[in-house]
């Protein structure tokens, strides 16, 4: 069925993928900050503090996404 070399190649490939995935996972601090940004943006949109008028779920998601990007950019500027 499968040769020993093929199975070893698949296992090595799986190990490499798992290592790359583990290395690129966000830290606890980043996860907390991202959650804070999402909560801030949801409250901002709900209160009507944004420039976007919400007509549908699509515009809501776009507004939250734009606010989230601004929040992440501020975080990156403050970190430097």
Helical content stands at over 70%
Described by strand count, sense and barrel closure, the largest sheet is: none
Poorly predicted parts: none
- The DSSP helix count reads 3
Distance between the termini: 55 Å
Structural class: mainly alpha
Average pLDDT for all residues: 86
Number of strands: 0
SSE order in H/E notation?
A: HHH
Strand content: under 5%
The shape is elongated
The radius of gyration is 21 Å
Describe this structure in words.
The chain has 80 residues and is mainly alpha-helical. It has a domain at 26-79. Helix content is 80%, strand content 0%. It has 3 helices and no strands. The protein has helices spanning 4-24, 28-47, 57-79.
Describe the protein's topology.
Elements: H1 4-24, H2 28-47, H3 57-79
Helix pairs in contact: 2-3
Descriptors:
0% strand, mainly alpha, 80 residues, 80% helix
What's the short version?
The chain has 80 residues and is mainly α. It has three helices and no strands. The chain has a domain at 26-79.
């Amino acid at each position: 069925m499968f040769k020993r070399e093929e199975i070893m190649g698949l296992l090595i490939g799986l190990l490499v993928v798992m290592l790359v995935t583990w290395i690129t996972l966000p830290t606890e601090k980043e996860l907390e900050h991202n959650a804070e940004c999402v909560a801030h943006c949801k409250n901002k949109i709900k209160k009507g503090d944004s420039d976007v008028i919400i007509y549908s779920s699509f515009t809501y998601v776009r507004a939250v996404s734009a606010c989230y990007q601004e929040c992440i950019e501020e975080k990156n500027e403050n970190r430097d």
